[in-house]
Specification:
single chain; 3 helices; mainly alpha
């Protein structure tokens, strides 16, 4: 049960971070927030490395 709570907290944190990063790069903030919530570290890395 504790794992689920920790994952949900991290998902929200990474979703907010991903959304803000996407806004600053003129990307779809909602889509990137969802990606970063489902795949936290991978989403942030993909958003950072995406040159377009």
């Amino acid at each position: 049960m504790a794992f689920v709570i920790i994952y949900l907290i991290l998902a929200v944190v990474f979703a907010v971070i991903g959304s803000e990063m996407a806004k600053s790069r003129n990307r779809d903030a909602a889509a990137w927030a969802l990606i970063c919530a489902l795949l936290p570290l991978l989403g942030i890395v993909a958003l950072e490395r995406n040159p377009i």
